[in-house]
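Can't paste images in this forum, so I'm doing it all in text. The chain is below; anyone willing to post the predicted structure tokens underneath?
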Amino acid sequence: MYSFKDRGHILNTLNTYSFDVLVIGGGITGAGIALDAASRGLSVALVEMQDFAAGTSSRSTKLVHGGLRYLKQFEVGLVADVGREREIVYENAVHVSKPEWMLLPIYKEGSLGSVTTSVALKLYDRLAKVRKDERRQMLSKKETLNKVPFLKEEGLKGAGYYVEYKTDDARLTMEVIKKAVEYQAVCINYTRVTDFIYKKKKLIGATVKDEISGETITIHAHQIVNATGAWIDELNSLEQKQAQSKKQLRLTKGIHIVIDQAHLPLEQAIYFDTEDERMVFAIPRDGKTYVGTTDTFYEEDPINPVATKEDVRYLIEAINFIFPSLNVQPQHVESTWAGVRPLILEEGKKPSEISRKDEIWTSKSGLMTIAGGKLTGYRKMAEEVVDRIVKKHHFKHATPCITKVLALSGAKGLNSQNFEDYIKNKAKVGELLGFSYDEAKVLTTKYGTNVDDVYVHSKSYHTDTGLPLSLYAELKYAIENEMAYTPSDFFIRRTGLLYFEIEQVEKYKEAVLNIMSEIIGYSETEKLIYQAQLDLFIDDAKNPK
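Text version of the structure:
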């Protein structure tokens, strides 16, 4: 169990003990560091000022991908690293990622010709050590149009066909957090670092405010890691002036739009050139197609970036450029999301030219910072950070890294070979408990071996909850096993419904608020705040500004 009920105990533990490592930031990078360190036997604390994955880690293109486009920028090392990590992420969490064949159309006027694409994909296969059955294929024009009949025909020569991995970024982050907790890491959301504590100019701890109760605690640690993504500069500014790093972030914003397949009937994922020679993904998911991403510099508060009408217009134009017969319109967009990329400042470069490579540095006071990087490379980045920590502090009790072969929460005993059979067997179990076979399949696919902990809530279900059984069971699991505290936590990061089934959110938001209020015990003020917060997120998703 990893429940909201544990908050008081967790805060007390953080306030009482000294840790080997304090990780600040509960996105995928921070979660990965917590898991790597805890699984090596280090004592670990992790704090996150919002909900887990509330920043960039729930707002990505939702792909564990090898960064094929970085070959165009000659970042061969980056492609090799993250390419090899794709399969590790997949095999360690088959319930939150799966292979997705990607079509890369080749046009006469395109940025990549047939030979170049073939060579690039072959190099990609080799660098990423792609398994045999997933290596690239080259398709003729006819084969390409068979896969996507409404693709622009003018100038089409054929396509490359290769595999990426589709994921749920927020759920991946949550499974990493839960696995870290299994290894005794002490992790909590809604806790903000307000100051640092020093001894002889060396960093030894942090003052932390619980954003829910208002309580302030202190956490002491041998090593503090800043893994706050878009908030790296803000956190580093808390350091004493003489200790501050000269490195700076440059934030860029990317948005995605979601369109029902009635208007964008894509059954095949595609990665295509836009008119301005950028690359955009269009990916089918559960009866919808989502398209992204944009890449623009972002100067505003990163707490809640939103899509603008101009952002949406850009993607609509890109869709109609590559699928000219569909005539997709802005009113066909059901929802949007926006995220910011925390990249290392490189003067004079366009947003899409700035390197996605991660960088680690340590200030004079001892604060270690990790910036940049990609979702796909989170495990490798974490390994490198913890290697540095172990070496710096001579932690004799630290064991070697094991995360290459460590199944995440919900994936123990599962792999790409046996997962389909596991889904079918568990779906039959779900049927006996009152779920439909299809509902039980969806739940098993999403939660893996944790599905039994979801199923158990069928026992307390009654129809006057105002929710379908499946959604009720997910809600109870999110509260009691995944530290969900607000309806936004549930609808955005535990289920993704706000992005892909926004009408379901509007239909059930009141029932979810009431159930969470009853279980958690919101005050009347909290209830109003969390209702308004969710309404704001719904409005942002539906109505570009």
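The mean pLDDT is 91. The first strand starts at residue 18 and ends at 24.
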